[in-house]
Amino acid sequence: MALQKLTAQEQTDALSKLKEWSLVDGREAIKRTLTFKDFNAAFGFMTRVALYADKADHHPEWFNVYNRVEVTLATHDVQGLSIRDVKLAEFIDEIYKQ
Ligand SMILES: C[C@H](O)[C@H](O)[C@H]1CNC2=NC(N)=NC(=O)C2=N1
């Protein structure tokens, strides 16, 4: 089955679990800002996310300055949010904890 956009209810349920994530104003996307000890830690995190993203063929939009990484997730293919964004957000939360 083709990739589906999350329903409004699925989106609400997903966001209630992804507590650090919020909806982007004026766009069907979610965002989170993460901070690290220094650039090395931030870039190490980005590298791990990049490996996941390439394997999953689902890529973040992100912005990095030194120890800060701002991540935005959306699925261009459905022009909104899909399960792939939820999975990527969960992966990000998981490795950020470690
Ligand atoms: C052709 C390729 O599979 C698509 O362009 C993939 C690549 N990575 C992607 N990443 C994201 N975030 N959304 C997409 O819809 C998407 N589509």
From TrEMBL:
<dbReference type="GO" id="GO:0008124">
    <property type="term" value="F:4-alpha-hydroxytetrahydrobiopterin dehydratase activity"/>
</dbReference>
<keyword id="KW-0456">Lyase</keyword>
<comment type="similarity">
    <text>Belongs to the pterin-4-alpha-carbinolamine dehydratase family.</text>
</comment>
<dbReference type="Pfam" id="PF01329">
    <property type="entry name" value="Pterin_4a"/>
</dbReference>
<dbReference type="InterPro" id="IPR001533">
    <property type="entry name" value="Pterin_deHydtase"/>
</dbReference>
<dbReference type="InterPro" id="IPR036428">
    <property type="entry name" value="PCD_sf"/>
</dbReference>
<protein>
    <recommendedName>
        <fullName>4a-hydroxytetrahydrobiopterin dehydratase</fullName>
        <ecNumber>4.2.1.96</ecNumber>
    </recommendedName>
</protein>
<dbReference type="GO" id="GO:0006729">
    <property type="term" value="P:tetrahydrobiopterin biosynthetic process"/>
</dbReference>
